Here is the input.
Amino acid sequence: MQNDLSRRSLLTRSTLIGCSLAASPLLTPLSFAAAPWDARLVVIILRGGMDGLDVVQPYGAAEFMEARGGLSVGPDKGAFDLDGFFALHPALGSLMPLWGQGDLGFVHATSTPYRDKRSHFDGQDLLEAGTSTLDGARDGWLNRMLQNLPGVETHTAYSIGRGEMQVLTGAAEVADWSPDADLVMSPQTMSLAELVMQDDPEFQAALAEALLLSKGSNEVGMVENSEGDMQMSVPAISRGKAHVKVAEFAAEQLRADTRVASFSINGWDTHNKQGRTLAPALKRLADTILTLQSELGAVIWQKTAIVAMTEFGRTVRVNGTGGTDHGTGGAMVLAGGAIRGGRVYGDWPGLAEVDLFNRRDLMPTSDVRASAAWLMRGLTGLDVSALEGRVFPGLQMGEDLGLLL
Here is the structure.
């Protein structure tokens, strides 16, 4: 580097929508847990496979510019230079002041142990389980962290959305809260909506998720109208910027007794027209981080570490539809006053074909679990043996990259 569970049941019910649900721009649950320590940890799951190579662009690598010629990459195309080798996607430009003050950083060429199959659902399950395989995974790594810390109070634990965050599922109890909003649509209306949205992958994904989020269930609801006909019941998309509301609520809890918050931002599946579909997701992420900074206040912000991670990266080369396919190595986003930012961390593997994973993907040189473990070690004081043996079973944390101040 240049410088320093369960969607399984959901998948079985919804094979027709495939990647759409995992890529939806709607938010999935937000969970909290109170704890006795003073630092704050915010874990954001970026569902859909964020293209780390487009977010933190290695424009200094000649192979990258050649492979990404169909996308707007590098400072000459509006990206923000970070260090002479990497540049930040233009849609994250509002975060550049955080980079300048050392409150924003990245870990590049990183991934979970997941390889080859490239399923959103398996990849996300493994990311949240924090294990090497999905065999026997029944809880999430954030919950296991809470189980291994003394004096944790769970009465201030919340989950916003319909469903659960597997990363906080487990013996340490967390509560759920979901706003109620419903929309009744006839099958004819649904067919028309699908037709209208078929050329817009972001709206199509939003519709797919709405179909699964009705009436506190992961299945589409059916209701009888005044004429005795059955209609499809799906939740309405809330007015305003839902991700901002989630961040505001998270900050309110973190200003009080909450010490850990976890939620999802969806919409990262950029198979088609990536130049158009990635920017909205990045803007939501930037809005979320800046809202947390504003609402937390200066004192709490300085005690806060935010980590945003995704199930896998995307292919180095652009596909035939102007997008990128499911890949392997990606990037982790770090923010907060507790972060030692202004740096892109990790060992850069290179982008020559012989350096790629399966000659198509960015080669992972680190495990996202190791970075998360070192953050937890620094924030909570949890010892390495507990992190490697119980929180992330079988993990070798390796060298501390010094992600925290």
User: Anything to note?
Assistant: The longest strand covers residues 258-266.
